[in-house]
Amino acid sequence: MPQNEYIEESIKRHGRRLDYAERKRKREAREAHKSSQFAQKVTGLRAKMYNKKRHSEKIQMKKTIKQHEEKNAKQKDTEAVPEGAVPGYLLDREGQQRAKVLSNMIKQKRKEKAGKWNVPLPKVRGIAEDEMFKVLRSGKTKGKSWKRMVTKATFVGDGFTRKPPKYERFIRPSALRYKKAHVTHPELKATFCLPIIGVKKNPQSPLYTQLGVLTKGTVVEVNVSELGLVTTGGKVVWGKYAQITNNPELDGCVNALLLV
Amino acid sequence: MTENSHVIAQFYNEEGTASGPALSLPVDVNPEQLALLLNSLLGNEEDPLPYTFEVAETEIANTLDHDIIQQGKQSTEETFKILYRPQAVFRVRAVTRCSSSLTGHTDAILCVSFSPCGTMLASGGGDTTVRIWDLNTETPQHLLKGHKHWVQHVSWSPNGKYLASAGMDGLVIIWEPRSGKQHAVLKGHSKWVSALAWEPLHLNSACRRLASSSADGTVRVWDVVKKQLEFSMAQHTAPVMCVKWAGDGLIYSGSRDKTIKVWASTGPYPGKLVKALTGHAHWVTTLALSTDGVLRTGANDHTGKIYKDEEEAQKRALQRYEQAIALNPERLCSGSDDFTMYLWPNKSEEVEGKKAAPKRMVGHQKTVNHVSFSPDGRYIASASFDKSVKLWDSRDGKFVASLRGHVAEVYQVVWSSDSRMLLSCSKDSTIKLWDIKTKKMKMELPGHLDEVFTVDWSPSGDKAASGSKDKTLKIGLDEKDRGREKAWREIEVGTKEHIGNIDEPHGV
């Protein structure tokens, strides 16, 4: 029993023997043989006590080994019943069919949880007026410059007719008009090409909303009757909001994310 | 212009033989007058039977004048061939509203079935239990546990004594519905069991034998009393999706290997393959027999009479069966993933030894999921994944009408016992009631929160039940049951084990 810590101090100062690790390993490996030799030689009361101790150690060791084995061996859990019960006529069919309809229960729960105007793109880049409009000069000597042409994608309704060209202030070129949008359902990750019903709100300015300009972040209403959604009252849902996620004037198509 | 003019008409029955002499009828005669006339001609004035009349395949709904002459279907110069068809004597009222929503299942409900007498209802679900519901109080009666996996199909024996349930674990369990105890567990299938069919009552009054089809390609016939396998038929090479036990003792099994195999259940070699019906180009999803309605109910008919004696019940069942096949021979209709259906003729329809060819019914644009004959054997209704239900004539397989209204796949279709109305359930969570006379939707029953997987109409006609993925069972009532509603409001709503959602104003 060392008094004070002179052994530890010496180890700290001078380190250990060079073959310390090897000797330690070999000594530990011999432990099993040594203890078994001792158990065979010892007699009397000492033997009884020693055997008792070894017996309890053996039981402990067996328990830990069994525990380790259980962790490794994966047994089929007979109690667990898999999710997604379907009747026989729906088994072994591709999941493609499921992509078109989301269960009404989940939709209800989600509506209750989230606020209604929880949009995927809360902030968008501000667009300056000179980027949005191109000035068109008119008049005999092209002196008047009150006409503007929209340089971004727009949506005009079904029954749109141009105002008389002399009084048209904002011109929306027909090449930049879009009727359909590629709408992605956020959970199902399925994309559908749905017709646009109208522009609900353009975050840049109410003027753009009125003109029907489609820029990134605009909330539009799309016709979802193709998806076959039904409310609990039995009514068919045919219009839903979606937010535009790309720059349509650069891509040539309108991509949107459905707001469920 | 044609108010007082007359036409020469002759009544013909369904087989084409004339009954009664040629008559001179005024053109403004309506169906009620025609019925009176026909009843007096046939001699049943005391007990008049209802009939429908049609000329040149157009039904007379208003008057002869309005429907036939003014539509230009037939000129007044020729003799009118008025074809009459008997209708069911009893009338089933339309199911108009949901009386209650039964909760209790903890997972989607996959199958629902009324007992042949119409008083008990059994439902099996994804939570591996089968529940029996008491229809008078609309509360759970028994909870039957035993399956280890989803319960795919529940089927009542024709005498109402046993209830069989088939599960994804490959077991067929027989229960005693009145006591709620398990009677037998039939092990043998190595994969999930898809369908069950009991032997008809008129062949065996003890209702001992049951056929089950499984995804391992075999059809096994079990003896319920001995609780063991009788024989097994293993010729299919793909999962067998449906099995039907016909009234003449033949067992039909339709499988995903595109064939339907016909087996003998009696005779010197039970379990022998009698015939293999090929023709479909893809999986066979469903089978229906023209005598399905009669075989399912056994001896119970609309009068609600209960036969205590087995012999009497068997005689009555045989009587009803023979009545049904006298009008139309027992035929099989199969629907498939190849968007078509085949109407297979009966053996008795062979002409001069040459086998009659099956009639191909084309028109659906997606998989035909469920096919059902009307109880009087006149029409076939088919539900398909193309969102429509189509009606076909069962004699020659001709298309009659298309019933549109659903916005998603139609899963199942079920007839009322008087063959006047049709219920269809769909993935869009609604159930629609269709009127056959007008071929239009009569009633819509929304209210489920998720896909409706199964629907059934009680054989006694007054109730319909539907089971859905939203774990509830809804029972629909007709208008006249308002008096009873007051009675069960006083009953205390359940113990902590079961909750019955009475008084929920769904669809009212």
Automatic annotation (TrEMBL), chain A:
Q: Which UniProt keywords apply?
A: Nucleus, Ribonucleoprotein, Ribosome biogenesis, rRNA processing
Q: Name one GO biological process term.
A: rRNA processing
The ranges of region (Disordered) come to 1-58
Localization annotation: Nucleus, Nucleolus
Q: Does the keyword Transcription apply?
A: no
Q: Record's GO cellular component, any one?
A: nucleolus
**What top-level branch of life does the organism fall under?**
Eukaryota
Which Gene3D superfamilies does the entry mention? 2.40.10.310
Which Pfam family would be a valid example here?
Ribosomal_S8e
InterPro entries reported for this sequence: NSA2_fam, Ribosomal_Se8/biogenesis_NSA2
Q: What does this protein do?
A: Involved in the biogenesis of the 60S ribosomal subunit. May play a part in the quality control of pre-60S particles.
Protein family according to the UniProt entry? Belongs to the eukaryotic ribosomal protein eS8 family. Ribosome biogenesis protein NSA2 subfamily.
Q: What is this protein called?
A: Ribosome biogenesis protein NSA2 homolog
Automatic annotation (TrEMBL), chain B:
The question of whether Flavoprotein is a record keyword is answered with no
Please give the GO cellular component terms listed in this UniProt entry: nucleolus
Q: Where are the WD repeats?
A: 102-143, 144-185, 186-232, 233-263, 361-402, 403-444, 445-475
Do you know which InterPro entries this protein is assigned to?
NLE (IPR012972), WD40/YVTN_repeat-like_dom_sf (IPR015943), WD40_G-protein_beta-like (IPR001632), WD40_PAC1 (IPR020472), WD40_repeat_CS (IPR019775), WD40_repeat_dom_sf (IPR036322), WD40_rpt (IPR001680)
- Could you name the domain of life of the organism this protein comes from? Eukaryota
Query: Which GO terms are recorded in the biological process aspect for this UniProt protein?
Result: ribosomal large subunit assembly
Per UniProt, subcellular location reads as: Nucleus, Nucleolus
Residues of the NLE domain: 7-65
List the keywords (alphabetical).
Answer: Nucleus, Repeat, WD repeat
Q: What Pfam families does the entry give?
A: NLE (PF08154), WD40 (PF00400)
What is the protein's given name?
Notchless protein 1
